[in-house]
Amino acid sequence: MAACFFLSLAAILFTLSLLPGSTSLSTTVGATYSASTAAAYAAPPAVDRVAHTVSSLGLSALRLDASDPAMVRAFLYSNTSLLLTIPNQLVPPLAANRSNALRWLYIHVIPFYPRTKISTISVGNDLLESSPKFSTFLLPAIRNVQLSLKDLGIQKISVSTTFSFINVITTAFPPSNAQFQEPAVDTVIRPLLQFLHDTNSSFLINLYPYNLYKMRSEIPIGFPLFQEHPFGFRDDLTTGVRYRNLFDMMVDAVISAMAVAGYENIPVIVTETGWPSFSTDPAEIDANPVYAEMYIKGLLCHLRSGKGTPLRREGVSETYIYELLDKQVKQGRNWGILYPNLTSKYKEIQYSGSDCGGFFHILIMAVGQLLVFALLAW
Ligand SMILES: *[C@@H]1O[C@H](CO)[C@@H](O)[C@H](O)[C@H]1NC(C)=O
Ligand SMILES: *[C@@H]1O[C@H](CO)[C@@H](O)[C@H](O)[C@H]1NC(C)=O
Ligand SMILES: *[C@@H]1O[C@H](CO)[C@@H](O)[C@H](O)[C@H]1NC(C)=O
Ligand SMILES: *[C@@H]1O[C@H](CO)[C@@H](O)[C@H](O)[C@H]1NC(C)=O
Known about the structure:
This protein is of the alpha/beta class. It has 14 helices and twelve strands.
């Protein structure tokens, strides 16, 4: 028994040695601000209050689904970087004539940039699914926005478009089997990847472990919620790597699909991810505030660990939590991290800094491991 005890102690020390010494956030963490949600309010919160709240929460980026110039103005001189979205219905006119792209930039970017930090412009959001008839316009529109920025001498704003995991990736089980769905891979995605490669831009994807968990009843709840325990893993037998959470599996599925298409090194930005705290459908028992808080906490802690994913050491470059504001009208699901009065729904969550549950979290993990190893030793 004594020998067993020392063995388990050695295992714990080994586990602790794997914890990074100084934890620094390697991924930019932000939130998504949906104009449609804000519009559901009798009195939408003032843009200045939103900007102030984002800064005081410690979020370093905000993704706007409709790029209201008043909102872009509210972030003048702030340290928050913005990811702007051009709505799907503007894609055909932007593709038809570069002066339309220039005009869009003159309204949404030029008056504010660089005093407002704008990192990326997404031309469309989930366009292949929401507006499939516009798909042939997508790449020409992206090119016109990028060329217009170049004409204006702006080098540092990258241009891309946003996809939705469920609508473009074939599978996440195992990640190494993942591919882009036909026919979009040939008509849209491969040419886009070439563009992203040529312009140093990123692949943007909305990715919800919650949705995949709901579709696959065999997935245990701890797996999407980052609740690591010794038997909670899945191995990818092709690559020989072990997954301990569903987020990493889905990110690596995206990375594998890009590699299969011939592009291995394009950075990935998760433009939406989250967990609902409420659903009007009583059958959706996993949409509750306890799980929502566990998901966000687990995600932040995982991103801060600097471990990346098994297939990509540096992980994703930015992650946006869906979404900043709760819906006031309780229809469907609630996703917000803030109540409509802009107070935090989850008091315990720290959106910035390197704290990850702190010393006691590590201690509890170590004691937990000790118990498990002691039980195995018996
Ligand atoms: C932005 O960051 C810089 C450097 O960290 C800091 O000095 C400045 O006060 C910040 N500005 C705002 C508006 O928070
Ligand atoms: C593009 O728009 C500009 C300004 O509206 C117009 O002068 C020009 O003729 C258009 N070009 C094409 C090819 O439609
Ligand atoms: C892309 O990044 C590389 C390395 O940082 C740089 O050499 C190259 O000029 C960049 N290309 C563009 C189009 O910005
Ligand atoms: C904000 O709204 C939440 C939820 O409706 C409520 O519990 C909280 O007391 C409100 N806080 C303030 C300061 O009004």
